[in-house]
Design a protein that fits this description.
single chain; about 850 residues; alpha+beta; Beta-galactosidase, Chain A, domain 5; Immunoglobulin-like; 7-stranded antiparallel beta sheet; 18 helices; 36 strands
């Protein structure tokens, strides 16, 4: 197989449309990493629903959104480039559309009109270059619309939007439409106030323009009435402003930039106009040159090229490439893209599940990032969770009476609210079972009644209904247990991503300043959690929690025990590297020695229903359990915390055997392609690839891309039109307006583990590189991927035979490599000198930063 140049390889994943999409969700996702839009069309217009990752109507202190799916955010405005009013349609069945991934540029060819669209990251400008060859005597109009009425109130939360005409530097008249949004919520009792604002600026160059708004003064001056006693009543009625381009203009460019702030002191209109001036000074051509170079550099970092006779390898490859296009287009801001919508939601800023992040969903976007070498794409994740560390430390004390840090599975962008102490005291007593649930006070119930039910700490609230005009909740019926209230494995997985960033980069500054505080905080939570107690066997067990949104009340829930074991091991390793907290090492080691083992089906009180002849498998936990699924074993250790992978067979053979038996038994019980293994969120492709099941992971990944179980497993499938996936390979698995690439992230991570994995086989163990762990014999592959330990590997395999293998040491240190040929003598060469020659199962070679090593048969 010939190795393609990067442009040709990436272009295999391009989107090509003939005609227009029937649903806007199927448009072209365009983004600069922080602001994005889904580009689609009406018969007369190109349409953009613009989103930012840092615009939120409310935060965790809100008392206004106590209904499920009711909070909103991310949207900054709608923009239509409307080419015709009276006359022939511009876009229809003969429209040709192309999204080129290598340059991240969309081209749309309509009847006499063509447009080139891209979003340049450094300037934050989305550019629409238009050529119009029609004999059309009307004006092309760029219409900027508010996301909602100009004033919109939900209880004490107010969203106010205003359209103004602004003037860029050097212009003699207003030429820019600005849409400003302000979100405020004030608690009159406590005096606390939330504020967020965004501004969107839209202008055109290469043409004469006139700005229009259909209010009494044409939008040319403010009609605000100062110090109004009432909002909403008397609000401005006009929600659109138009930028009218002179008739007969043949070429012009429309620009869009945006900004946001949480400070009422910042003049957000001034901020966005400064961005507009900076982008305008560059001009579209120079922005495009810079944009193309940035994307070429991005694609040069790593790649995967795969081919098979049946085409499955090519199919997986193009989805892999497309996934990284999406991530580079949406994961470069202060906050990560929302798991359901990313920054491409095309239907406004309401969506199922609201604006909070669910870690188990969000993680699917980041599992594959570090092995791609694009460590910069992890920064929004670290900024998001690192930024809430103080709030999470307070939450650990207030909610669970423990030292350390509690990062909820479901949380707002600013982390958990700091509770009034009287509420915190009662919550702590209730959630640690020191006070009967039936005795919770009216004060506590009233406080929680105003809170969002999806948030983990209030997740015992179930479905709502209305009684006498009030929102009334049913409870789940298991006391304080909600689906995610006691889900502590999530915070361990978040902390483990910080740890893995260090393993891949070997950046000790990052480890010390960003990762270690999170690792230590989460590990201390487990070690000091009041429900972590020594049992009669002398082991530390975790009592009365849950696992996987079920098994309420269980002992040693798999996710929580796995998280505890991983975090304590990593804490000891990280502290040793940094030389931190030496006075606590002995205490931590004693705790580590006495931690409960991962639960298995062989343990007393196991939750599984076994059949005669079943092997020992991983279990979800042990009795007593209030709410449970007794039928399935747990696959959790097979893809979390490096607890089990190829290398585990050498460092912990018993764990590896149980994982292999569990994976094999699940296929025997359910089949390879079942709802148990194939769903949008399923990590089965990752698990089976990590353990060398070449045929199985491919079959699972292929079915996952085809969304074969959509009707059974999608949320709100009827509400979304019963569409499994759209033309752009994306889904709305989570519900209305919830654009999702979760399954693409799962498949991408599975591909990486099949080609090149580098875990140490257990948390805190030294990384070992294993090439071609689960590559089908009839596949041909080339790849460059990054490995733990600070190595980049470029390798190829043809018809089951490894070919060229080149390894770059980015940080120095020891390279540990499994025998890539399986048998026979092989050698590792650096600068013409043999560093290793032998048949060892694992070669170990000392390297220096920047050295390139070549592996070959001897």
């Amino acid at each position: 197989m010939k190795l393609l140049n990067r442009r040709d390889l990436v272009s295999r994943a391009d989107l090509h449309y003939r005609g227009t999409v029937k649903r806007r969700e199927g448009g072209f996702p365009i983004g600069d990493g922080q602001m994005g839009a889904m580009l689609f069309s009406s018969p007369s217009a190109l349409k953009f629903a613009l989103n930012r990752c840092d615009v939120f109507a409310a935060n965790s202190y809100t008392n206004s959104f106590n209904r499920r799916h009711s909070d909103y955010g991310y949207g900054v405005g709608f923009v239509d480039v409307d080419f015709v009013d009276y006359g022939e349609d511009v876009f229809g069945e003969d429209t040709v559309q192309h999204l080129g991934l290598y340059e991240a540029c969309a081209n749309v060819q309509g009847r006499g009109v063509c447009a080139r669209v891209f979003a340049e990251a450094q300037s934050g400008a989305l550019c629409v270059r238009v050529k119009d060859d029609r004999d059309y005597c009307g004006s092309v109009q760029v219409k900027v619309d508010m996301m909602r009425p100009s004033e919109y109130r939900v209880l004490s939360n107010l969203a106010a939007s205003r359209l103004t005409m602004e003037k860029r530097s050097g212009q003699n008249k207003p030429d820019t439409v600005v849409l400003k949004q302000e979100f405020t919520e004030t608690d009159e009792r406590t005096g606390s106030r939330y504020y967020c604002a965004s501004a969107l600026a839209v202008w055109a160059e290469g043409c004469d323009v006139t700005l229009r708004m259909n209010n009494e003064v044409g939008g040319r001056e403010s009609m605000e009435i100062g110090n109004r006693e009432f909002t909403v009543i008397g609000k401005p009625q006009e929600t659109q402003m138009r930028l009218c381009i002179a008739p007969g203009t043949r070429e012009f460019t429309v620009y869009m930039v945006s900004a946001s702030t949480f400070s009422e002191e910042e003049d957000i209109i001034r901020t966005v106009m400064e961005k507009a001036d900076a982008a305008s000074a560059q001009g579209e051509e120079r922005l495009l040159i810079r944009h193309r170079k940035a994307w070429a550099d991005f694609w040069d970092k790593s790649y995967v090229q795969m081919e098979s006779r049946d085409g499955t390898a090519q199919k997986l490859e193009l989805h892999y490439t497309y996934f990284f296009y999406l991530m580079n287009s949406s994961s470069r801001g202060k906050y990560p893209p929302n798991f359901g919508g990313m920054i491409f939601s095309p239907c406004g800023d309401y969506r199922n599940w609201g604006t909070m992040q669910w870690w188990n969903n969000l993680s699917l976007y980041y599992n594959a990032v570090q092995a791609s070498g694009h460590f910069e794409l992890m920064e929004p994740l670290f900024s998001f969770y690192g930024g809430m560390s103080e709030a999470c430390t307070t939450a650990a004390r207030q909610q669970f009476g423990t030292d350390g840090m509690y990062i909820p599975e479901v949380t707002w962008f600013n982390g958990p609210q700091v509770l009034p102490e009287e509420i915190a005291e009662e919550m702590r007593a209730l959630y640690l079972f020191n006070k009967p649930w039936e005795e919770k006070s009216d004060q506590f119930a009233d406080f929680v009644d105003r809170k969002a039910p999806h948030e983990s700490r209030y997740n015992y609230k179930f479905y709502e209904h209305f009684e006498d005009g009030r929102v009334v909740y049913d409870e789940r019926g298991c006391g304080p247990y909600g689906a995610t209230t006691y889900m502590f494995g999530s915070q361990a997985a978040i902390a483990y991503n910080f740890w893995k960033q260090y393993l891949y980069t070997k950046d000790e500054t990052f480890l010390r300043e960003q990762a270690y505080p999170i690792i230590k905080g989460v590990a201390k939570f487990f070690m000091n959690f009041p429900l972590t107690q020594k049992g009669e066997d002398g082991k530390y067990h975790i009592y009365r929690t849950c696992t996987g949104e079920a098994y309420f009340g269980c002992t040693d829930g798999m996710e929580n025990v796995a998280g505890m074991r991983a975090m304590v091991a990593v804490l000891l390793t990280a502290a040793g590297i940094l030389g931190e907290d030496r006075d606590q090492w002995d205490e931590w080691k004693r705790f580590a020695k006495d931690m409960a083992p991962l639960p298995t089906t062989a343990m007393e009180g196991d939750t599984c229903e076994l059949k005669e002849g079943d092997p020992v498998m991983w279990s979800n936990g042990r009795e007593p359990i209030l709410d449970k699924d007794r039928h399935n074993a747990s696959l959790y250790p097979c893809d979390h915390f490096d607890l089990s992978s190829y290398a585990t067979q050498d460092v912990d053979p018993d764990t590896y055997r149980i994982s292999m038996d569990t994976l094999t038994a699940q296929i025997r019980k359910h089949g390879v392609v079942s709802r148990y293994t194939v769903s949008e969120m399923s990590g089965a492709a990752r698990m089976y690839a990590a353990h060398g099941f070449a045929g199985e992971w491919v079959e699972i990944a292929d079915a996952q891309l085809d969304c074969v179980n959509a009707a059974e497993e999608y949320c709100y499938f009827n509400d979304t039109g019963r569409i499994a996936q759209f033309e752009n390979r994306l889904t709305v698995r989570e519900g209305v307006n919830c654009i999702s690439a979760q399954r693409l992230g799962n498949v991408a991570a599975g591909i990486q583990l099949a080609l090149c994995q580098s875990g140490g086989g257990a948390p805190g163990k030294e990384p070992v590189i294993k090439l071609f762990a689960a590559v089908p014999d009839d596949w041909n592959i080339h790849f460059r991927l990054w490995c733990q330990g600070g190595f980049a590997v470029e390798a190829s395999m043809e018809h089951g035979q490894p070919k060229a293998i080149r390894i770059l040491s980015t940080a120095g240190g020891y390279l540990k490599l499994y025998h890539p040929y399986g048998e026979g003598t092989y050698r590792i060469i650096c600068e013409g000198k043999v560093r290793f020659n032998g048949t060892d199962r694992i070669a170990c070679v000392k390297t220096a930063p920047g050295e390139e090593l070549y592996v070959e048969r001897a």
